[in-house]
User: What shape does this take?
Amino acid sequence: MKRILGLWINGRWREEAVAENALLLDYLRDGLGLTGTKQGCDGGECGACTVLIDDQPRLACSTLAHSVAGRRVETVEGLATEGNISRLQRAFHEKLGTQCGFCTPGMLMAAEGLLRKNPHPGRDEIRSALAGNLCRCTGYVKIIESVEVAAGVPA
Amino acid sequence: MSMPDFQLLRPTTAADAVAMRAANAASRYVAGGTDLLPNIRRGLVEASVIIDLGNIAELTHIEFGSDALHIGAGTRLATIAGDAAIRSRFAALAQAAEAVAGPTHRAAATLGGNLCLDTRCVYYNQSEFWRESNDYCMKLKGEGCRVAKKSKRCYAAFSGDVAPALIALDAEIEILGPNGSRRIAIADFYRDDGMAWLTLAPDELLTGVHIPLCDGWTTAYEKVRVRGAIDFPLAGIAVALKRKGDTLEELRIACTGVSSRPLAVEGLDELKGKPLDAAALAIIVAQTEIAAGAMRTTLVEVLYRRGVAPVLARRITERLWNAAA
Assistant: This one.
C-alpha cells in the first residue's frame, strides 16, 4: 500500500506516494531515477548503497524509505554543485580512487560523511570510516589516498 | 529480489507498539533494520505487518542512576560506542557496541536489535535458491539440522556482540508486555535453541537494560572474525573482574558466537580470593572450553573457534588483571 512520504532529497523537498514496503534504495533508484546509488550485495554487506541521512552515512538497502520521513537524504548526485564536481570527487579523479567505479558512490558518501564530521582525519580514521565499504577491484590504497588529498594532506 | 508486501506501522510510544503487536499476529518489530530487512528480502522472515520502532523517543535514553546505568533498547550502537561515560565506566559495553559490523550498521543498529539478533548459520543465511537447492533445514521450511545430522534441535549460533558484555556486567533486561513490564537477568533472556533463542513472548517488547554500576571493576570485550572491520564473531569474549591487592575478588566471563545463546562461563567461583596465577589461568581456559562448544555454523573450522575462545578469555583476563594492579 502507498502512503505519502515527505523528505529532503539532495536539498530539495519532495512529497509523493511511496509504497510502505519500499526500501530507501528502491525508492532512490526506481522511484527517482537516482541510479548513482548502487545495489550491490543487497544485504548490508558491501556499502555500495551508502547515502547520507542527516549527514550520517547509512545503508539505503537496509533502510525503509518511510523510516526517513522528514529527514535529509543525500546521494552521490548531490555532491556536485552547479555542474562542478566536489573537492572529494576531484580527489578521487586525480588520485585514481576509482577503478571499475561500482563502489565509488558508496565510498564517496562514506568519505563525505567523515569529512563533514572531521575535516582533517588521520589515515586510521579514514580506514575506520570506510570499513563497511568493499571495493571489488581491491583499490583500497588509492581510495584512502584520495580521501587524504580531499582532506588536505599533501599528496 | 524485491521486498515482499507488508503494512508499515510507526508507533510513537512503547505501549502503542505492544498493542499493535498484540493486534497483528503476523507482525514483526523492526528497529535499525540491519538484520531484519535483509532477512525479509532473502525470504528468511515473513511478516504482513512491520512495526517500526524508530519513532519511539522513550526508548532512546542513556541515564546514570544512583545504582545502575539505564539504556533504552532503541539507543543506536554508535551512540553507545561513542558515549564518553560508557567508554570509561562500562568499557566492555562500549567495546562490544563498537565491534558490531561497520560504521554504517552501527549508525542504524540498536541495542535491542543486537540483543534480539536472529541466530546465524551457514545453512540459513543464504538465498532462497541456495536453501532450496540444499533441501532447506529445520530452522526454515526443512527438516533436520544440517550442522548436526542426528540432532533434533537447531544449532544456529547466536552472534550478537553486546549480550556477552551485558552478561559479564550482570545486567538486567526490561520487557514490556500487554500486562505490564517485567525485569529478568540477561542470561535468562536466552535459550540454547537456534530456532527459539529468546525467552521473549511474541507479544512482548524489549524496552531497555539496567546495568549495575561497576566502579572498581575492569571490563573488556574482544572478538575474532574473518575481516577485522565488519564481520560477525567467530567467537567473542567479555570479561569483568575486580582485583583487590594480589587477589581476585570477582570474575565473570561470557562468550558469544559459539552456541545458540550467549552464555556465562561457569566454575570460576573457586578462583575468588586467590591470585591470578598459572593454575587460575588454566582453570579459566578449561572452563571456557566447556562453554565454547561451537558447531559447524560458519565456513571457518570448528576447532579454531573452540580453541580461540579460551585463548581470548585467558588473554583478556590477564590483561585486565595487570591493568588493575
